[in-house]
Structures are given as C-alpha cells and as structure tokens.
Automatic annotation (TrEMBL):
Residues 1-117, 323-444 form the RCK N-terminal domain. PANTHER family: POTASSIUM CHANNEL PROTEIN 2-RELATED-RELATED, VOLTAGE-GATED POTASSIUM CHANNEL KCH. Keywords: Membrane, Transmembrane, Transmembrane helix. This is NAD-binding protein. InterPro entries: K_chnl_dom, NAD(P)-bd_dom_sf, RCK_C, RCK_N, Trk_Ktr_HKT_K-transport. It comes from the Bacteria. SUPFAM superfamilies: NAD(P)-binding Rossmann-fold domains, Voltage-gated potassium channels. Residues 462-544 form the RCK C-terminal domain. It comes from Fodinicola feengrottensis. It is found in: Cell membrane.
Length: 545
C-alpha cells in the first residue's frame, strides 16, 4: 500500500496499517523533515517527492500497489495525484482526503474504486459533543436503523455498553455489563429523535434564506439612533401640523403639506407666514431650525447604518458582547467543520484566526460567525472574543503548543470555562488530562486514521466515538469467502475488543443483538463496535486482505 501525505494523519495511518500487518510505502513531499523522521521511526520506507509526479509514484511501486491513500492537505493536489495514479494503475483502490465533500462526491464518480473522506468531518462531531456538553451524544445510522451513542439517559434500550470508569479512575472500553457505564450505544430516546428531526427540518430553502438575509440586513439599518431620529422627526411634524392648522385656519392636509415644506425647506411658496402674527412666525423659525437638525441627524444615521451593514456583509458580523457562546480558536479545516456543526445545533460561536483569508471571511459570513483576527494564545485576543463569558473554548489550531496555551489562558480568564483541545502528541494529551485540569483533549488524526485504513482495506467505518483519549469505531464488516470468520461461531468473535450488535444476511433486514451461537457464513455483514486494535483484528479475520 502507498500512502501520500504531509502531516500527522500520514503517521497515524501508517501505524494503523502496521496493526493490519500491511506493508506500506510513504510518499512525503520535500520540506517536511519532522514527518519524515516520524515515519522513519516506524520502520516504513519513505520516498521523497510530490504525489502528483508520475516518477515519484513509480518509485513507490504504484503499479504493483493494491491501494493508494492521498491524505495530504489540499483538495486540488490530492485530485491531481489521484488522476496520475489511476493512469499508472487502473485497478488501484483510491482513498482520497478532501475538505470539499460536494466536490468529492463528483470526483468519486471518475474512478472505478474510490472512497473520498474528510478527516475534519470525521473528527468534528467529537469536538462538538465535548463543546456542547449536553450529554445528547450523536446519532449513528447502521443497517437502515439509527442508533445513538451517548449517556445512558439518552437511550431507551442499551445495545452495547461502550465505556465505564474503573476503580483506579481509568476508562474501560466495551465492558460486558451496562452497569455504571457512562457511554452506551442504543436505541435513541424520543427526545433525541425530536432533536434529529428538528435539525433535519431546520435547513431553509433558497427563497426563505434570501428573505431572512434581507430581513436581517434591514434590521441592521434600524438601530436605536435611527429610531430616535425618526421619532424626533415625527414629533416635530405632528406638533407643527397642529400649530399651523389652528393658527392659520388650514385644513389638516394643508397644514401637513405646509409643515413638510417648512421642515424640508422645499415647496412652491403657495402658503407662507408673511401675514401671520409674530408669534406664529417665530414658531415657524423654530420648526425650520428643528427640521434641519432632525433631518441632518436622520440622514447621518441612515448613512452610518448603511455603511455598517455593508461592512458586516463584507467582513462578517461584529463580535459585540457575546455571552454563553463557544469560542473556536483556529479556523482551519477542522475549525470550520466544528463551527458548521455548532451553528447547526443552534449554538452562538465566535471564531479566532491569526491571519484570516478572504475565503475564510466569506465562510464566516455564511455561517454568521463573528471573526477575531489575532493570536489565539494571547489573553487580549481571547478577551476580545468573549472567552471570559463563554461556555466553552475549543482550540483546534495545527500547533499543540498554541492550543495548550490558549486553553490555559482561557482558564485564567474564567476558571469554570470548559476547554476542549486538539493535541496530536498522546503523551502530552494524557498529562494535560491528568495534571493541568483541562477538560478534554482530542486528536483529529487519531480518530480519522482508522477510518482511512479501513477504506484502504475496502471496508466502511460508520462512526468514530471518542471515549476519553481513546476511540471506538462502529463498522460494517463483510465476511469474505474462506476467511477466518467463514464458518466461525459469533461468540468466538465477540471479545473484549470487539462487540457484534448486528448481523445481516443477503438483502434481509439485519438481526440486531444476534445470539452468540449464530454460525457465520461468507457474504454476511457484521455490524461491530471495536477498539482500534479490535477493528484491525476483525478486518484481517474477515478477509479484507
């Protein structure tokens, strides 16, 4: 197998393939010495060069490879490399990492055997669940049925207990009993189903979205100053109309007409105060002066609000004074995915990015997320984003040190703030969890790598469920002919690292929670929850090789 990449996902994926006893060759672009060092420490052969270069791929043995994973950042480069590889080896299985999944669906159709995955889309739900901290968990479709992974209170029927705390405080995965389990897989309760339905029906069509945008735009034009100016103008017109009606013995319409011409200093001069008593003339002077002042204030308010609204549409909404919101530090591919899902859940979000690009600013406008430009680890930047009043701070930049410093700074601003960190280094993450008191630490590559590895083996991972620093994987595993599982008893497969909760034969409806004495045959599909090592074991046993 050939794996091309330039970041930590490449390293994690090679570790997963090693657990599967797969021989792999890594292709790393020039200028990534740290990645090359980590890959070399794994004992994997490294080819330096661009994956879009046919010569580089040939040096990696692409013409003899079974699968190619393109996991570098940059959709265009990955698509280019996939096209080059398909010309060199038409039978190659392709696994392509892409951020733009709409484009990925179209790219998938260009190849005979291609799977498009997004590392950020795989990892984002775990960050969102940790940030919201509402215990609702997440829905997982499997075999035409929807399951829920979350706290026991979120399910009506426990299918698989996923995690519980041991006496020493460590997390035990896939316990035999649901007693004391804090994370379970089961049938979602009615409240969860209502939440899913509400989320599914909350997407407005293009026309309604346009109307909502115009209503919001008009609302931005009518702030308190503009309303005060309009009220003042109305008061002047009403009082002057009544004054001229009785003082000059005019009809109401004539009095209103004369008042408007006086206030706006326009008209035809057909009504004037030349023959009026002195006190009426003095009142007319006051009305003219008040009219000029109020109209000037009204014009200034309209122009100011119009310019401000256009700036909001160009630069995104202002931060203002948010409260009980979520601050997302680092608006890269992961940060954007997290913002999208948080906004879909109805949460208020403020983003922080060191140097936001025009494309990022456009994405922030689309999501209605105010953006603060600055260093996420700086206290003043976090304060500008309202971190002191936030319900959670999510630090998902590409730098472990920046994320850690941002989390510690956020805690200094508000000790009760929940902090969710993205950390690659597992040892650092464990020590942060134990010693520094920061709430949750996640790794994008740790959650995504097993999904990419399974795709390279031709298998599908349905979801990655975080349990502390570890991850459980829900997968559909077909049983291959003459594999180790062909003819085996289900009870021999179900173990401390693998739990089987569904079995489908042919096109029939799956049997959920099948009995342990069931005999497995080729062509059946197992629905399993497994640890990373457990999934690797069952993939090999199912004949994925």
């Amino acid at each position: 197998m050939v794996v091309c990449g330039d970041d930590t996902l490449l390293v994690r994926l090679l570790e997963e393939l090693a657990m599967l006893d797969e021989r792999a060759i890594a292709v790393v672009p020039d200028g990534n010495p740290e990645v090359v060092r980590l890959v070399t420490e794994l004992g994997v052969e490294v080819v330096i060069g661009s994956p879009t270069d046919a010569g580089t791929l040939l040096s990696a043995g692409i013409e003899r490879a079974r699968a190619l994973a393109l996991v570098g950042e940059g959709d265009e480069k990955n698509v280019h490399a996939a096209l080059v590889a398909a010309e060199l080896n038409p039978k190659l299985r392709l696994v392509v990492r892409m951020f733009n999944l709409r484009l990925g669906q179209r790219i998938d159709d260009l190849f005979d055997d291609c799977t498009v995955l997004s590392a950020s889309a795989i990892a984002a739900p775990s960050f969102v669940e940790a940030a919201l901290g509402d215990g609702h968990g997440r829905s997982i479709p499997a075999g035409g049925r929807t399951f829920a992974a979350g706290a026991p209170s979120t399910v009506d029927d426990v299918v698989v207990p996923l995690a519980r705390y041991r006496d020493d405080g460590e997390i035990s995965l896939l316990p035999k009993s649901a007693n004391d389990a804090f994370l379970v897989l089961g049938t979602p309760s009615e409240s969860i189903l209502r939440t899913v339905v509400a989320a599914a029906t909350s997407h407005r069509g293009p026309v309604r979205r346009r109307l909502r945008e115009w209503a919001r735009f008009l609302g931005q034009l009518t702030d308190q100053r503009l309303r005060l100016a309009l009220a003042s103008l109305t008061l002047v017109v009403v009082l002057a109309t009544a004054l001229f009606k009785f003082a000059l013995r005019l009809e109401w319409v004539q009095a209103l007409y004369f008042t408007v011409t006086t206030v706006t200093t326009t008209g035809y001069g057909d009504i004037n105060l030349a023959a009026a008593p002195p006190w009426v003339q003095l009142a007319g002077v006051v009305v003219m002066i008040m009219g000029v002042l109020v109209v000037a204030l009204l014009t200034a308010a309209v122009v100011d609000n119009l310019v401000g609204a256009r700036l909001v549409r160009a630069l995104g909404p202002p931060v203002g004074k948010p409260h009980d919101h979520i601050v997302v530090c680092g608006m890269g591919t992961v940060g954007l995915r997290v913002c999208e899902q948080l906004r879909a859940a109805g949460a208020e979000v403020v983003g922080i990015e060191q140097d936001p690009s025009p494309a990022l600013m456009a994405a922030a406008r689309r999501l209605e997320v105010p953006l603060v430009a600055g260093d996420a680890s700086d206290a003043s930047t976090l304060a500008s984003a309202g971190a002191g009043k936030a319900r959670c701070v999510v630090a998902v930049t590409d730098d472990d040190v920046v994320n850690l410093e941002a989390g510690l700074t956020a805690r200094a601003l508000q000790p009760d703030t929940r902090v969710v960190l993205r950390l690659f280094d597992p040892d650092l993450a464990d020590r942060v969890d134990r010693r520094l008191g920061l709430s949750v630490s996640r790794s994008v590559s740790y959650a995504a790598a097993p999904v990419f590895a399974a795709a390279m083996m031709g298998r599908q991972v349905l979801a990655a469920i975080p349990a502390g620093r570890r991850v459980l994987l829900v997968a559909a595993v077909p049983i291959g002919a003459r594999s180790s599982l062909d003819g085996a008893s289900l009870s021999t497969v179900d173990s401390g690292r693998v739990r089987i909760f569904g079995l489908r034969t042919g096109n029939a409806e799956p049997v959920w929670q099948p009995p342990g004495e069931s005999r497995l045959v080729a062509g059946q599909v197992l629905f399993v929850v497994a640890t990373r090592a457990g999934l690797a074991k069952i993939l090999v046993a199912s004949g994925a090789h």
